[in-house]
Amino acid sequence: MRAIITVVGKDKVGIIAAISSLLAQNNVNILDISQTIMQGFFTMIMLVDLQDCKLKFSELKDLLIKKGQEIGVDVNMQHEDLFNSINRI
Amino acid sequence: MFTSQEIIETINMVKQSNLDIRTITVGISLFDCSSDIPQRFIDNMRKKIIKYAGNLKNVANEIEDMFGLPIVNRRVALTPISLLTFSYSYEDLIKVATAIDDIAKELEVDLIGGYSAAVHKNYDENTRKFISSIPDALASTDRLCSSVDVGTTRSGINLDVIAHLGFIIKEIAQKTKDKDSFGCARFVVFANAPDDNPFMAGAFHGTGEGDCSINVGISGPGVVKRALEEKKDASIDEIYETIKKMAFKITRAGQLVLQYASKKLKIPAGIVDLSLAPTPKVGDSIAEILEEIGVEKVGGYGTTFALALLNDAVKKGGAMAASFTGGLSGAFIPVSEDSGMVRAVEAGALSLGKLEAMTSVCSVGLDMIVVPGDVEAEVISAMIADEIAIGVYNNKTTAVRVIPAYGKKEGDEVNFGGLLGGSKVMKINRSSPKRLIERGGRVPPPIISLRN
């Protein structure tokens, strides 16, 4: 299963490191990553593969949200299919 | 990989524009549960509802988690109960109603529909008894919903039952007076009722449906409004195109949820209802879309025009996004559930007369309208008759969900909480239609019914 993770917030040192190490600890493979400043905010978008992740979707999501709160950014994870459905015919 | 723009837009649809799935509704046939012993029917019914909908809450929660898409309501729709309880006494009917309500509570289903009857042709003694039980059935339950179909384009309009329903609605209001006559919000009168409608109070599992199916009703007026906000100076055809595109995207989300829920619950997928349905939240209102299109206040001239194009664009956009569509597809205009509508009523801009005109192009009809509690039963019947006529003669579904709030007068406020919202009591026309309603009888179907 693949998911899209977005991280939005004020830019600072260590955001990518914090999120990606959490993913690595849970065997989540990052397939694609892009990062940009949109509307004044640091915005990171990741496509990840959850195939080898032992956690349930909601558990991993909760961990990410918690980590986001620690470093002051808004983290979101949604199943890839939502983006596929809405944006691709 | 998606572009950043696409991803941010999709996330904003949910986070800032209140995109949500209004409801997942499991429709269940009860034909194989029937028995002339009421308790046996109840036991069979319980077993079957638990079998199909027992996991509904968990699956809906899982979908919310996976897609980050809120699902506002989990619902169950049943075979019209009147078809299975011909021989039951009044007391047994109430027992069935409360048993259904208990099952809904046990499964944490928000609403359960199907305490329903279709009387568009004949009004026999059994059905009369059933309809007479509706006030007590609603007063002794919290989640049960009820509906009566009183007319179709194919068979005409049954004025006898419409005359009766005026009194029934007053009785429901009286019996649920402690909760601002809340029972009336769980009862709707229909013309041309669809079999696969996931929206309450009118949801039931039609006789043409299979053993079980799952239907999804989408929502998302906020998403459309936001898209229109970026088109301040656009011409009306561009506005139409924008609504169509957004309706497509919203419906795709609905189709995804339908497929996922169907797979998880092992229930065949039914339809996606392509609807824009408001919630009382600010920014999630149909009225605000109409005002964004250019009407200063909903109810002013131009409102019917704006609603007509909105409704058509939603259907066109959505029709390509989902394989099976149905239900009541279009824009809903309930008053109490829509913060913009409530504001327009308070400002005196939106009258019942204008609402009735709007129902000729909306997806349902006079919906969640609070009127003074001392209204004559015949006036309610005549309001129903008008609305049913619009449906029957124009070959569309229409409905009436009106609440004569007990003890309240024009300008007072009522509050139902949750999705149903609250509203001021509206001004009604007091001239008496008694002579008309008391004639009773049946109106023959219109000439368009002879099409074949």
Automatic annotation (TrEMBL), chain A:
PROSITE patterns: ACT
Organism expressing this protein natively: Caldicellulosiruptor morganii
Listed Pfam families: ACT_6
Protein name: UPF0237 protein OTK00_000667
InterPro entries: ACT-like_dom_sf, ACT_dom, UPF0237/GcvR_regulator, UPF0237_ACT
Matching PANTHER family: UPF0237 PROTEIN MJ1558
Gene3D superfamilies: 3.30.70.260
Higher taxonomy: Bacteria, Bacillati, Bacillota, Bacillota incertae sedis, Caldicellulosiruptorales
Span of domain ACT: 4-78
Family statement: Belongs to the UPF0237 family.
